[in-house]
Amino acid sequence: MIKGVFFDVDDTLYDHLSPFRQAVSAIVGEREGFPYEEAYHRMRYYSDKLSLEMGGAGVMESGASTELMRRRRFELSLAEFGITLSEEQASAMQAAYIGCQFNITMFEGAKELIERLVKAGYVVGLLTNGAENHQLKKIRAMELDHLIPPERQFISGKVGWDKPDTRVFAHVNEMTRTRPENSIYIGDSWRNDVIGALEAGWSVIWFNHRGANPESMEHVPTHTAVSYEQLARLLL
Fold this sequence. Notes:
Largest sheet: 6 strands, parallel
Distance between the termini: 17 Å
Radius of gyration: 17 Å
Structural class: alpha/beta
Order of helices and strands: EHHHHHEHEHHEHEEH
Strand content: 5-15%
Number of helices: 10
Number of strands: 6
Strand order of the largest sheet: 3-2-1-4-5-6
């Protein structure tokens, strides 16, 4: 029986809030008491929403429409918190965001957990939404290739389906020769990760390190964890 453990990337393997906060502060200044975490969640919401309206991550690699989407997600999310961005400011914020997005450090204990899972004989992989080259830069920045081979790095922009589409989870099972009932997914997004994995017949550990509230009552994660210490106890 082959057991698989698959990780999301953004805000699961590393802190995705940090580059967002740096980008916002660079353009509008550090604001005492500003709810960066809430604004970040809204940016993620608009990013997913606008990406799907464009046709999904497979068309998100480059181009004028992609740049418009990336600018609009900042405009829309920050407007909810009383910050109106000009087109120039939104473009500068996106540039700052990209500029620091690949200077990332994995969560404490993340690399060690992956190493232990590999040694224990699990099939360990990545499943992330996003444009292929963009997400690969993050994977390279975390130096994960020597732990997770490229054939187990699944990026929606290359595969053709975005989470929470169950077809992307089925594709991962097919390519890794794993079965849904023996597969565990670890991710932070309720909509993409919890709902997507459960609907695909997988077990799911909701990595809820930000203390978010569940977004639906009909879906119940197999487990919830707030740190890699907890994840290690659950998995090993």
